[in-house]
Amino acid sequence: MNTISNILKLIRFYWRTEKKQYLKLFLMFFAIFLVKTAVIDFIFMYINADVYNFSHYAFKQWIYWGGILVTLSYLFDAVHHKQRAIDALCLPANNAEKFLSRLILGLVGVPLIVNVALLAATTVVVLFLGTMDSLAGNQPEWERIFSYHYAMTWFYDVRNALHGYGSISNVVQSIFWENKLALVFYTFFIWFGTAFRRMGWVYAFIAFFVVIALGVFTYEVVGIRNTHLLASQTSVKTLFYCFLFLSIPFTLLAYRSFCRAQIVTHKFVTL
Amino acid sequence: MIEFQNITFSYRDKSEPVFDDFCLRLEQNKVYGLLGENGTGKSTLLYLLMGLLRPSEGHITVDGTDVSRRKRTTLQQMYIVPEEFELPTMRFTDYVKAYRPFYPAFSEDILRRCMEEFHLPLDARLNQLSMGDKKKALMSFALATNVRYLLMDEPTNGLDVPSKKQFRKVIATSMTEDRTLIIATHQLHDVDSLLDHVLILQRSHLLLDASVTEICEKYTFDVRPNDDIDENVHYSERTPQGNATLSLRQPDDEETPLNLELLFNAVTSHNL
User: What is the pTM of this model?
Assistant: First the structure.
């Protein structure tokens, strides 16, 4: 109980001292989504719907997920700066409490900010440009963009659950991670961001592509697809849960880096 | 009680260790002056004590607990005022509201008294304060936490002359019986009236570890003319008033106030 109350106390503390950073983060994502929706979507939608669909897909992959992952890699960034590290590490709370409170804030708060920014930017664009567009007598395509973006956010799942189309578990899953595998990537980026002093997300992306390349090599060249491993649905499910299980060692490695953080660290890594 | 047990520590980019098999024991209820030239390891010692740096060998314990574990119960009893620091962009009252829940013995009275003494408003905007005023605000908060071990790294750097006087007054009035204060500084004049115990570091070794009482019982500090330098004088320096001397105290000599700068120069030039 004591630990839980301390974690809640820390979350309140981080909110009180860092709310301006969260506001800045929201404004940054809001601006990115605003420009993307008002300019890129607008152009592609009128040129070709297929191009728009591709653009939408790329947007989701790179801005939405990329934004969340890069932001999460900065979750424990304070330990890499001498003066901020003194403040962060000397705060009277156990390492585990500090780590967990930040992790909760990161895994819930960062995607929430990105979701709200996406919906807010889309709403602003649709209200403004959509009105102008319909006044000019054009076919209002903006509703389509709004529904696309809306469907990407948590609010869509919440609405579905409220109207009885979805389950509570869908909402919880949506709020904590859009799909289960996202947790693996979240923790992977948090670990790299904690372990590396600068630009941990760059190393994380590099490592991510190396792993993907190895996976493709194993699948295609070594011939894993011809083995019994992927023959049944159960095997695929097992592989899926094995991959999901990786989020535990990634979290533990991030925690280890956080516990071992010192104010004067190695030039590149937290040792 | 604070114990450094056979500490070895070196920075990665330097071949020479800062501390090599270093031992030190600090008792409670005292004001320690940690003195030394630049680069002798004063700040490093404070960072090691706070668990902000990890020794490669040895242990540092505070009341029997290893500080490298950075446990909540240990950190609740310790506070460091670093030489350089960042404060969040907010009002001081909001800063206090955010940080005070972590210090169970926090005293609003001490905070108000210290801020009054420093002529700072409680609702000051931290980003609009000068560096000296920020330091005074942070020191007020540090004293108000009522922690048992308070560490200050060059606390008078950046303070003007009246502020240094205010600093001495605030420290003198805020020292309670169960509190230990460690002041790392090379501004000797700023702290000499506050200290109970003097630690002098040089090249990672402790050259002096003695209480002010012991020092004043053993030595006298006075100014003598040139023709009055006898064999009892261990160290002397020419000053416009004559020779400032550190002499072995004789049975009939009266106790003199500590001249910290003279003592420091005598110790670091190996004349004591």
Answer: 0.84
